[in-house]
Design brief:
single chain, binds manganese (II) ion, nine-stranded mixed sheet, alpha/beta, binds sulfoacetic acid, 591 residues
Amino acid sequence: MTKETLGRPNTSNKTVLKWVDEIVKLCKPDQVYWCDGSKAERKALLAEAVEKGVLIKLNPKKLPGCYYHRSNPNDVARVEQATFICTENQDEAGPTNNWMAPKDMYAKLRGLAAGSMRGRTLYVVPYLMGPPGSPLTKVGIELTDSIYVVLSMGVMTRMGTLAFEQLGEGDGFNRGLHCMLDVHPDRRYIAHFPQDNTVISVGSNYGGNVLLGKKCLALRIGSYLGRQEGWLAEHMLILGVEAPNGEKTYIAAAFPSACGKTNLAMMIPPPAFKGWKIWTIGDDIAWMKPGPDGRLYAINPEAGYFGVVPGTNSKSNPNAMQLISHDTIYTNVALTPDLDVWWEGKDGPAPKECLDWRGNKWTPESKEKAAHPNSRFTAPMANNPMLAPEANDPHGVPISAIIFGGRRSDTIPLVFQSFNWVHGVYLGATMGSEMTAAAVGGAGQVRRDPMAMLPFCGYNMGDYFRHWINMRKHIKYPPRIFHVNWFRKNAQGHFLWPGFGENMRVIKWIVDRCHGRADADETPIGWVPNPKSFDLNGLPGFTVEQFEQLQAINEEEWRREVLMQDELFMKLHSRLPKELIFQRELLLART
Ligand code: SAT
Ligand code: MN
């Protein structure tokens, strides 16, 4: 690209040119800039963002290539109340989604978007979700007036002219429009039109609401397309477990937002597991499709990680500390006087003084947190020292195990395995978790979050369960399905399990089960590790009794659990697959 062509249209695709033209007429930006994804472009846009005060360049000696961003204090997390699935009929969106008729929502949003980019630049951001050349990869184009979004999409996706190359002259792309407006909660909508492969997001500038490739395309629209096209779009990390003899086993795992997916995907096995390695393929989203050999193959559609910062340190996630030591955008953490960043749970002492995520003076005596609990890093996956080379493989990786996990103080054991695929779908469908800061409101309450997809399923959740059950017929060698809970507490409120790297012990049992090497005992809820088959070596002070406490099945608690599951089943009754009701009955009969 020469200076003259930088920012000019870099496609001749008539459908794209016409659509951009329509949006330009609607939003009336002063300028239109077409992104090519080059290094030169990124450098220029970073400089512009610094000049405009959108980003602060961090201390290059401590954090080379890193930038700091503060979002509007009213705009720090996903807003589920403002997230809509706009299908022709409300029943298609189902009772777990907000719904509005497409024509009403289009009219409302056109009204809000009209003239909203006066005095601003509209950026055309072409991107790929998935490795170039993969049959699963999708093209998206996001039109946005936020330079922060452009720079973040450059990290989170494969962004630039390569997307137009993959698209060619076709019209199979996701149309994304993002208008910041005045970033006011009253004018905030994240609207999905699955039948038009379209997303319109207005009134926010926070990641999950505005990086339209991520939750909007890769999960909400993706899940809708996946059902039509015979694949699964899931809120799952993907990791590769390498055994000392070189054997590699791939696992996909669903946990709700801010429950440790990134930590698990980047985990370093404890010293007792010499020779074992965990490789990351993805930390948030998996697209999975049966392959010609009858196994289920997964790709990570993303190219970067948008992870929770607080609590990240060299003990909880040493690889992440390396990941975010360069070329990272930090959002809503604290800023120190020497242009370094700080957050609760970082290594070392708190700074004597800094600016908190709102930009106010903060000292260790302050009552408020310095970093917002949902403050985030945006870092390229290439920075991850344990990035699996397969993360760029267009074929994806064959999945041997699927894990479902929630954040539960009681009831749910550390690990158990489903009896079969449908029972596994039931475990995913009935998942519960205590809410976190990743979404506005309700933190701490247990809510049903089926397959960690409650906020991300782009169609009727009952039909989604049906799709999961049906997928079994297309997978000759289905992954084994497990449930885990790292967060069980004792009566004194202390965690029973050390978590983090020690979770390797659970992963190893799962790997061994997949390869038919570990014993399990049958219980009413599923297969549990026989204590002899579960590796507790090198975990000093941790006794078999403690392990039994972690694995205990308390009948009283389980009866309550099954009753609580009913709430969701009642809500979905009209489309709930019978198989799940049978699973519930079988569980009751066994307990
Ligand atoms: O903010 S995001 O939606 O991208 C993160 C999450 O909630 O999982
Ligand atoms: Mn997520």
